[in-house]
């Protein structure tokens, strides 16, 4: 990734496939309709798809998006969001009519009244497992993200809200978790054993077991309303498809692993509520299905290019995923599915947010976010 060539990353990923494979961390007010939101705010956990600037403050991280062309269509410029404009969290927040963008935890300005509508803890390159993302130099694991909430944010939030009752204090916040993809791309598929399909199910079971403990921890802190974002069809991303150019279309081996994980994640939304987290609500958003609907029938969804990155990406020696600093970009970002080698454009994020907020059970189970916030 940027500034730190990582030839090993490319070699390992290629081998795995072939052997089977800043300154704008904004908390400013943004325009909203006058209607009040049914939720106080959002606490966000996960990876680059929902990160809005936390990695900008990690000196050793190579997973950063704090430079152009990232943010070219964002009102405050490059902010650490891994897309050309708003990410899915920004857009869900707008649909919920929250008064401002959710601030990143690592920003020194994220304190006092700025945390009242929530905090974003997500870190690009991170995963469910602590070891995931080490190849990116420095990331904040999901477990550490939760500790940041518990040890830093909650004491200050109690002071701001004048409450010592965590369950009451946090019950009107959404807890959004968008993670898991990196556990496959930058962990499982980098292992020599990944070519052995018998190793996949134990790996997924470990992910679900670990995530279950992390969700229970959030529940013990007072979280009651959860949104679990499924893993995208990463087998269709430009970086993954480039690893095996002999194959046409998406790399099914990667997508099948994702489908198995998403299936277990959807089941978890039911089982953990019934058995371990009473009086909680868990929603599973099938982002895989939403993206595949676009990729399979792009014209009907308003897209043209479903396979190439909109921006000029870094050389393979640098990872081949992120945009090249100051590199060229496509003219019509709204017609592209992918902005860089892995992350979707704002146009796709708009579709994702809309589906998560008000779609039917075919995309959001057992209810959508609009229904969840009424509870």
Automatic annotation (TrEMBL):
Primary site of residence: secreted
Keyword Signal: yes
Domain of life: Eukaryota
Stretch forming the signal peptide: 1-24
GO biological process, one term: lipid catabolic process
Annotated compartments: Secreted
Keywords annotated in UniProt: Hydrolase, Lipid degradation, Lipid metabolism, Secreted, Signal
Cellular-component GO terms for this entry: extracellular region
Gene3D superfamilies referenced in this protein's UniProt entry, alphabetically: SGNH hydrolase
Membrane-spanning intervals of the chain: none
GO molecular-function term, one example from the UniProt record: hydrolase activity, acting on ester bonds
Family: Belongs to the 'GDSL' lipolytic enzyme family.
PANTHER family attached to this UniProt entry: GDSL-LIKE LIPASE/ACYLHYDROLASE-RELATED (PTHR45650), OS06G0560700 PROTEIN (PTHR45650:SF2)
Protein name, per record: Lipase
Organism in which the protein naturally occurs: Lithospermum erythrorhizon (Purple gromwell)
């Amino acid at each position: 990734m940027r500034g730190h060539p990582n030839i090993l990353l490319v070699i390992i990923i290629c081998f795995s496939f072939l052997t089977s494979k800043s300154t704008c961390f904004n908390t400013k007010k943004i325009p909203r309709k006058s209607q009040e939101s049914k939720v106080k705010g959002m606490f966000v956990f996960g990876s680059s798809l929902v990160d809005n600037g936390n990695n900008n403050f990690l000196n050793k991280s190579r997973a950063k998006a704090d430079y152009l062309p990232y943010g070219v269509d964002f009102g405050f410029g490059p902010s650490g969001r891994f897309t050309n404009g708003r990410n899915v969290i920004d857009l869900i927040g707008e649909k919920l009519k929250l008064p401002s963008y959710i601030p990143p935890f690592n920003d020194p300005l994220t304190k006092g009244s700025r945390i009242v509508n929530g905090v974003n803890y997500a870190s690009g390159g991170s995963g469910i497992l602590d070891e995931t993302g080490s190849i990116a130099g420095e990331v904040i694991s999901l477990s550490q993200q939760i500790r940041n909430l518990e040890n830093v944010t909650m004491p200050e939030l109690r002071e701001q809200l004048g409450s010592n009752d965590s369950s009451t204090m946090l019950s009107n916040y959404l807890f959004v978790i968008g993670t898991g993809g990196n556990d496959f791309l930058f962990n499982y598929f980098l292992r020599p054993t990944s070519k052995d399909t018998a190793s996949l199910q134990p790996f997924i079971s470990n992910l679900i077991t670990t995530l279950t403990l992390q969700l229970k921890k959030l529940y013990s802190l007072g979280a009651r309303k959860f949104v679990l974002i499924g893993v995208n069809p990463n087998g269709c991303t430009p970086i993954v498809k480039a690893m095996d150019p002999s194959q046409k279309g998406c790399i099914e081996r990667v997508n099948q692993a994702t489908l198995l994980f998403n299936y277990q994640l959807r089941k978890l939304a039911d089982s953990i509520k019934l058995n371990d987290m009473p009086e909680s609500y868990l929603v599973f958003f099938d982002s895989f299905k939403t993206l595949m609907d676009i990729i399979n029938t792009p014209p009907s969804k308003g897209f043209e290019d479903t396979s190439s990155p909109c921006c000029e990406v870094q050389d393979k020696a640098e990872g081949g995923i992120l945009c090249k600093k100051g590199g060229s970009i496509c003219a019509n970002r709204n017609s592209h599915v992918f902005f860089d080698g892995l992350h979707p454009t704002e146009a796709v994020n708009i579709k994702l947010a809309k589906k998560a907020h008000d779609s039917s059970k075919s995309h959001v189970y057992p209810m959508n976010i609009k229904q969840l916030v009424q509870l």
